[in-house]
Every structure is written in C-alpha cells, then in structure tokens.
User: What shape does this take?
Amino acid sequence: MDKSRNRRPTIIDVAEHAGVSKSTVARVLAGSSSISEDARDRVMKAVAATGYERNHLAVGMRSGRSGLLGIVIPDITNPFWAGVARGAQDRAAEHNISLLVFSSDWDAGKEARHLRALRQARVDGAIINPVADNFDDLSRFGLPFVFIGSSAERFSDVSSVGSDIAQAVRLGMEHLFSRGHTRPAFILGPRSRLARARFLRTVHDFCVERDIDPAVLAMEDAEYTVEGGKAAMERLLARRGRGYLSVFAANDLMALGAMMAVREAGLSCPEDVSILGFDGIPAGAFAWPGLTTIEKPSREIGVRAVDCLLDEIAGRPEHGRVYMPCRLIERGSLADLTATAPKMVAAGR
Assistant: This one.
C-alpha cells in the first residue's frame, strides 16, 4: 500500500512542485506583497495541485487568531437550534471563519466538556446557550463569548441574543383571544427552564389585564419534544371531559406531538381541538392541518450572535441583551370560534 496517499501535503511539497523555496511559499500564503506575480501564480497552482491546506492551529499560535469560532447549542436535532447554528455558520463564513458546532443535550456536564474542547482548539470565541446557572465560572472562562437563548437572561453582565419571549407569547395570546379562544390550555416546558417562567409570566400578566384568573387555565409541563407534547396533550384530553379545547404549546415539537395525540383520540384539529405552536420550525408547514405558530427568528439569532461575538473579540463595547422580535404564521390548526360555534365532543371518545 502506498503510504504517501495517507500523508498530508506539506509546505515543502508545495515548494518542490512550484520550484521555489519554502520561505517563498510561506510569504505567498501569508499575503506578502513583496513577491513577484510569476512566483505567486506558481505557488497557488502548486497549492491546488498538491491539495495543501494550512495548519490553522499553527498559524493561530503565531498570529494569536485561529480563524475558528465555536457554538454550543442544547439540541442539534431540534430544527430551531439547527437554524440558529446555520445562521451563525453562514455569517462566520462571510468573514472567512469556520464554526465548530456542539450539542449539549441540556446536560451541564456535556456543556463543560464541549467548552474545554473549544478552549483546547484555541477558538477565537464561542456562542453558548448556557445550561448551568454557574456556567463554568464566568470569571475564569478565558475566552470571548456571547450567550444565546432565554437561559442567557440569568447573566445580566454578558452580551446575549435571543427571541423576545414576552413579545412572542403576548402575540400568541392576542391571536387566540381574537379568534375566540379565551380559556386556552397550555403545554409548558420543564420547571427548571427559564423560558418556561418567562412564558408563564407573560400569560399571567395578559390574563390579569383582562380580569381573567390565570389559575383557572389548564397547564401541563413536558419536555420540549414530540413525545413530551403528545403525553401532555393526552393528559389534557383525559381531564377535559366534554367541550372544545384550545392549546398553546411552548414549542412546535410539543405542538406536533399534541396533534398526534388528538388524532389518536379520534378527534380532529381544528374541528375539535385548536393548537397554537411556538418556534416556527419548517415541519409545522407540512403537518395536516398546517401548524399555526409564533415564529422565532432562529437564523437571525445565529447571525446576530456572530456579529456580537466578533465585536467582543475586537474589544468593542458589550451589547447587553439583544431581543429579536417574533411573528405569527397562520395556517390551519387554529379555528376561528368567533365565526362558527365549535362542535361539542367528548374528549376521550
């Protein structure tokens, strides 16, 4: 077996192929202007022919910059967080920077390991959705960083980017009420998540403003997954008895799981049950009926986070908390109860 096929091309290979010295190759790759056009052309052709790639870690050790950023998101399988990562990757690429992506799975231990790996890789900075309250001790993190997501609001001294949850939930509540859904039920996230508290606080304030006792509204906690939403909807259906049911789910995966539970109960959406989602993931458009939802700007959050991080790396002033507005996407999962009387059905039939 030819072992040379498994050897990475070196700067010496490029120099031999171009017929120039190793130092000439180094100066060309460094962008030096004191190189003849002929030599520069030969070196670049040799780079392409040999497949040579620069060792960015070695370059970074000399220049102090690696040309790498990192991002740690909680769940890469959730399309919302995948959208955040894609936006960050696209913006980084515009600056000729590569992005390393890690998923913490909402696990503080995994988050800590990923952050150590980023430091060891000498990335120039990191974008993080913090899982733990202490976050690996901010005072000794030793790397420029920006937070994303609702959890970031726990850290008022750190620049962060996230959806405007209060604006988004209020937008959802206003839409529900405008369609006659004045006593919706809620599928919320785990009690340990700050997003749940922010969501619930906005619902509470909205109801109080309209002289509605929030305590009369049915609520179920669940994981932010399809399975969690399905199980929560099954519990809501079991306790509902007879009557029309409207549900506001705290993310689209849970909303899609709730739609599954409705179908399995022999009911129809929105004839028997209306469902409003939260996130705006693409899968909602392909559900039947299409999922009405509040869309959070996932890609834009990633883009803005990279912009903020590059400012942090450059030593420019902190941005504080950047709130990104959300918008309503109206499809078919939410009935207009002001136009037609809902069909009264037994929820458990």
Summary: Residues 79-94 form the longest helix (16 residues).
